[in-house]
Design brief:
Its main location: cytoplasm. This is HSPB1-associated protein 1. The chain is α+β, with helices and mostly antiparallel strands. The chain contains twelve helices and 17 strands. The protein starts with 7 loop residues before the first strand and ends with a helix. Bound molecules: 2-oxoglutaric acid.
Length: 474
Amino acid sequence: MAAGSGATMATMEEGEHVKPFTPEKAKEIIMSLQQPAVFCNMVFDWPARHWNANHLSEVLHGKQIRFRMGLKSTGTVPQFETTCNYVDATLEEFLTWNCDQSSISGPFRDYEHCKFWAYADYKYFVSLFEDKTDIFQDVKWSDFGFPGRNGQESTLWIGSLGAHTPCHLDSYGCNLVFQVQGRKRWHLFPPEDTPLLYPTRIPYEESSVFSKINVVNPDLKRFPQFQKAQRHIVTLSPGQVLFVPRHWWHYVESIDPVTVSINSWIELEEDHLARVEEAVTRTLVCALKTAEDPHNTRAWLNPTEVEEISHEVNCHYLNGAVSAFFNHYRTSNATEIQALKRNGQHMEKEELNVCNHTEAGQTHSQTFATGTVKQEAASPFGPDLVPVTQKSEEPPSERGGLSESDGQHFGKLHCAKRQKMMSNSENAIVEQVASSSFTAPSQTFISTDDLLDCLVNPQVTRMVAQLLIQGRHL
Ligand SMILES: O=C(O)CCC(=O)C(=O)O
């Protein structure tokens, strides 16, 4: 929707501006869109618009922050957090190292600026600003239709040129990313490309599935299927907000000397099952990796993870996730369940699709109703929502218009109602839980044997065997 009906007025220093979308409309778009897109002109009145690194350095005066240090020049192997070095420093020290390259003192002294980047990444506002809770109000996700959501549910990312996050997908939610300072280039791949991205859970981090591929310098001999992946690229500039739909893969790199961005992951209905999946993954990864080498977690456990990896704790965590799933659907009202069931009929058919997994990119892009197929229709949302298309052009600068080619790619299929991507099995579980005839297990009900019965179920072991055989050349 272009500025006009339903648009809201907001005041800023230079005069009055109209936001192109009301909170209700923005939320409707976010909950229905299955393609990444850039919102323009939505945050010009947010106080956080002025949070450049110099300003943050004053706000956080003297606070020690952990920076991840990586090499600017790399080969074909992704720079995972487990292989990076870390430096504890203030933002002021970071800025001195970054801007005054002759400086060889301070905590960054061992890192030549021409060879390394530094990244204060994935910093939760609540731990960063602690007692300065007023600052949370400077971020207003309520403008996107999420009342009360502010800095408290946000993370901050401050990096130097070349700082990047390896390619991964987030297991939970969808994502809104506000670019505050400098530009970042996002390489995105749709969920149906998952088999082409060679997913791995090592290093292990809850909620992140990493790709084995360095997508900016891929080893195509080792990962030939990656050539079929549908890369979408967008450069995010200050003042813009990127919407990343659920399960889209992303590699993000800082392409200016200093970058600052703020994001918030928005919870989705699908997260209830995803939490159980993550708990199973954690239990399995911890058990096998500890069996392999009981004393060396550094090689596989992401530094962001708590070190508590005992089987007992993981089982407790799994039971918590399963109970939460049951509680949620038991208390969901009938309309909600009906909607879930309807959406489930349009499931993404990725389950147990092992035999075809090398062809998945092709098969899915044909059947996936809201994939990246080019559409002829113009954008239904006007110039302030720029779709990120395959090999797309850069989005326009703030207040700029949608380019002709962008408009052609943004058809009505892309704004179809979010298909919940609920699998048949989840649909069946939801139905069972919702129906009174289903006796839900009580309290701590999943034992190690229960878990093993599922993991070594013949269907599962067949799938694992097929994956191992197909991947034996890796
Ligand atoms: O900005 C980055 O480096 C990564 C951001 C990211 O992975 C996310 O917001 O999910």
